[in-house]
Specification:
It is a single chain. The protein is an alpha+beta fold. Among the domains are: about 45-50 and about 75-100 and about 160-245, no CATH class; about 105-155, no CATH class. The chain has helices at about 5-30, 130, 230-235, 240-245, and strands at about 90-115, 140-175, 180-190, 190-200, 210-215, 220-230. The chain has a six-stranded mixed β-sheet with strand order 5-1-2-3-4-6.
Length: about 250
Amino acid sequence: MTRSIIFRLGTLALLAAGLSACNAASRLANIGSEPKLSAIEDPTEKRSYQPVSLPMPRPEPVIKQANSLWRPGSRQFFKDQRAARIGDILTVNVKIADKAKVNNTTTRTRDNSENAGIPNFLGYEGTKIPKWFPGIDPSNAVGLSSQSGSTGVGKVARDETIDLKVAAVVTQVLPNGNLVIHGSQEVRVNFEVRQLQITGVVRPEDITATNAISHTQIAEARIAYGGRGQLTDVQQPRYGQQIFDVIFPF
């Protein structure tokens, strides 16, 4: 093992030990106290935030008509209280009840065999070829055979049910009038925090009169539901086991 390989392995070990030590120190500092809730922040100010860019139709010129209460291109005649501008809030109903069951079995077997000979080769098959290549039978010069087989079995069984509601904020209005929303909700019970996050694009027409929308009507929806705290920590493998699972090749 060269010095460069030893140096790289040592560097990786030091980095892993440093990360584990920092995380362990943070967890030790919070022993006996409840997990802290995240501060309320403007999602557009986060470093990971990226404005949504989607294909837009060509803008239609506004034609003013005298003595008319209706403006061409308007989506509504009377003003309502549904979310329509940046900063407005609407309710998102998340109701997921997915069930999936897939069974796949694949079996494949193949046998190949090829034989080739040179019974007549310019008269050399009886004299020259045995002399040039001792031990070779010209009538059975080439013989190839191969055999392969594979068997695959796959099974997936999934049953998920989520029924939640979360308030989302309009963070962007696209040129065609669609709304980009972002919602986050955290609930702490004892020493466990449950977090729900949702982002996506909605049409103003899909928002109901009660200023609510279903998650099935959100385009490019990203829904995350999870938690952190003592119970979540117990359900996770230890750091050493996680590192071992990543670097162990067998």
